[in-house]
Amino acid sequence: MAEVFATPQAAEAAFYDAFQRRDLAAMMEVWADDDRVVCIHPGSERLEGRAQVEHSWQQVFSGEHRLRCELSDEQYTQDALLSIHVVRENISVNGEYQGAVLATNIYQLMEGSWHMIVHHASPEPLAAEGVSESFVLH
What are the backbone dihedrals phi and psi of residue 21, each rounded to the nearest 5 degrees, phi first? Predict the structure, then answer.
């Protein structure tokens, strides 16, 4: 039986729990059963569809490092069917803080359960010191 997430926050808690436990089956329970899902890991290309997303998490979990992620600076925007979460993921590897990742997680209500449809994570920008004001990404 598929996991039911009553709230987007419950789906998000399950996502980060699966991430820290390196549990691929639990991770994929969070993701929508939809080939339009999108995942962008820090510094990686855009992955589309459940097969690519699952393969990417299998790669992430295959390493020997113990990953820990603590969230901060959460911002939520929600309507009846979509919930957008913008968070800072504070990442530790084997107990040592490595830095922060900025992530956008989007959840959709589908058949009475909230599921992830987008996870986009990017390394936190470098400090503004020494960065030209004329350097604009968008």
Answer: -85, -5
First to last CA, the chain: 44
- CATH 3.10.450.50, applies to 8-123: yes
Q: Cα–Cα distance between 82 and 86 in angstroms, integer? A: 13
At 115, phi and psi to the nearest 5? -140, 150
| pTM score | 0.89
Residues sharing a CB contact under 8 Å with residue 13, sequence separation 6 or more, in sequence order: none
Over range 99-121, report the average pLDDT.
Answer: 97
* 62 three-state secondary structure: helix
The mean per-residue pLDDT over the stretch 18-24 comes to 95
- Return the percentage of the chain with pLDDT > 90, whole number: 79
